[in-house]
Design brief:
This protein has about 210 residues and is an all-alpha fold. It has 2 domains: about 1-55, Orthogonal Bundle (Arc Repressor Mutant, subunit A); about 60-205, Tetracycline Repressor, domain 2. The protein is about 80% helix and about 0% strand. Helix 1 (about 1-30) crosses helix 2 (about 40-45).
Length: about 210
């Protein structure tokens, strides 16, 4: 009986945490994270403020947990692309398209990511994150594969990977500002053209 009760309590705790996290997602979809209070989160989730603090020690702790679960589907999709058998240039194209598409489908979550912190601090934290570094390393290997296959020029693969990811995030942020953003396919194509072909009409600068 004690084991069954413990299992039931664990399930209830998990459901409560999920309800709280979903409440935050609902709120940030409507406005930025800085305007959200723990009282509002508790009311949206249908729990007491005391219960809220039993599961999350602070607003910062809560927001970090929400980012974790919110961006996990995107991470899984990107891993599927990276682990697939497509050519390096097609992998890069699909990664850009999926990043843009996911942020377009979840504009509130992108606003959450951008408005929760100052942009400079956000970039520094991303670059220190083990998950972000691991993702960049995987993209670096895709670039290196492209070099080995004669598809890409010999460049610093780590810097190229950083430029690819940050430019795609910047494009997503730009789309967030547009009242009527262009279709995802159009902006993904623009990124690919600039990234793989450059913007010069002649040969690349020496």
């Amino acid at each position: 009986m004690p084991r069954r009760n413990a299992k039931r309590q664990s399930l209830l705790d998990s459901m409560t945490r999920q309800a709280i996290q979903e409440a935050v997602v609902n709120l940030v979809t409507l406005r930025d994270t800085r305007g959200i209070t723990m009282d509002e989160v508790a009311a949206e989730a249908g729990v007491s403020k005391g219960c809220l603090y039993l599961h999350f020690r602070s607003k910062k702790d809560l927001l970090e947990s929400v980012k974790e679960i919110s961006f996990k589907p995107l991470g899984d999709q990107l891993q599927d692309i990276l682990n697939g058998s497509l050519s390096p240039d097609r992998k890069i194209k699909d990664i850009m398209h999926r990043l843009l598409g996911y942020f377009d489908e979840n504009r509130g979550l992108l606003r959450f990511l951008l408005e929760d912190r100052e942009l400079a601090q956000s970039q520094i934290r991303r670059q220190k994150s083990s998950r972000y570094r691991s993702f960049l390393e995987r993209i670096s290997r895709v670039v290196e594969d492209g070099v080995a296959e004669g598809r890409f020029r010999q460049l610093d693969s780590g810097k190229v990977a950083s430029m690819l990811v940050e430019s795609t995030i910047a494009m997503s942020a730009r789309r967030l500002l547009d009242e009527r953003p262009a279709p995802v396919e159009e902006d993904a194509r623009l990124l690919m053209e600039v990234f793989l072909q450059g913007i010069t009409l002649g040969s690349a600068p020496q």
